[in-house]
Amino acid sequence: MAKKYFGTDGIRGTANCHPMTPDLALRIGMAAGKIFTCGEHRHTVVIGKDTRLSGYMFEPALVSGFIGMGMDVILLGPLPTPAVAMMTRSLRADLGVMISASHNQYSDNGIKFFGPDGYKLSDGKEHEIERLVDEGAQKWLVNSSKLGRAKRLEDAEGRYIEFVKNTFPKGLRLDGLKIVIDCAHGAAYKVAPAALWELGADVIKVGATPDGFNINRECGSTNTQLMQETVLQNNADIGIALDGDADRVVIANEKGKLVDGDQLMAVIAKSWAESGRLRGSGVVATVMSNLGLEQYLDKLGLNLVRTQVGDRYVVESMLKSKINVGGEQSGHIILHDYNSTGDGLVAALQTLAVIVSNNAVASEVCSAFEPLPQILRNVYYDGLDPFKQPEVKRAIEMGERMLGENGRLLIRLSGTEPVLRIMAEGEDKNLISDVVNKISASITGKKN
What we know:
18 strands; alpha/beta; five-stranded mixed beta sheet; six-stranded mixed beta sheet
């Protein structure tokens, strides 16, 4: 059954427009509070957020809903999504909440949930929350003597910084490395530069002055030009770009060339396999990952397990296959030795560990394989679902025939915005470009 409010990664939309309204946030808080209140102990929920202005609206709405259900609330303030997952486990909370729209523009916002184990909620739990939202959870409001309380965890940033530093191999330091860190004016704007500096790096910060409106604007993992230029201008050894909630990472080597999530997974998997840390004899990635990654892992005697797009599906497969390295080409990398969800800073540190331990430069380490030509294009549309447009169907069928057995064509709707995502891959770049152009042109009501 399709979900009404939840998408592929929580609830997301334009702030102060349905469904992302303070009223829904209040009702979501009450519904989730009811579901995750069981037993006689004092129940606790931790709430983090990114730097969007609308976070000031959604945070108190959620707090009111939880307190009304008798849950105590611990406010973390601006902190990365993986920090919320980690803190949920560390503080033995019953629930974790992140207020963020990840890599989206400031005008959007979202709500993500983590269970007491630090993993995102199952489809079943999300359906249950939606049911209570629509039915109304008011009848379960506690009496005034059992209301929850709210407090701010003053050392939340310090806890996460120490957690991140402890993922870096003992005995290694970043001394002598000049690192550009682009925080996307987002949730990691304090903790990421601090962790790198405390590990010994010479840190150059960009995208670290949030004003509530500039999150992801011309910076971060989805707009890397600023980070790449800063690397070149400062003769830096490496550049690291996070997204708004810091669960994704993209890297630039010392030449300013981008390194995506596929390359990072290859680097980490090889290193962990050589040290005996890799579990499950492979890596989990999505259907979007480049065929070059699969071929590279095969040469190492490792498997690539593919899932549908979405980090939750990657995590589910990792747990099922008992694999501890997985992720997405976009840079959402999950390392189960450390956290239950993607952590951009931790993934970057694992890559830096390989660079430091081999006394190498980023361009040597982070070019594990030669990717096949691949084109990704997002087409925004108004109105009718592109898959229901006859011209689009015909263009897709033609594209599949053109590529034949020497390429791949993957097309899907975004779960969080009105976007058709087109991916074509093959040996002939001109051919795949032609295929993508024809499909894009066939869409009526497109915005770009």
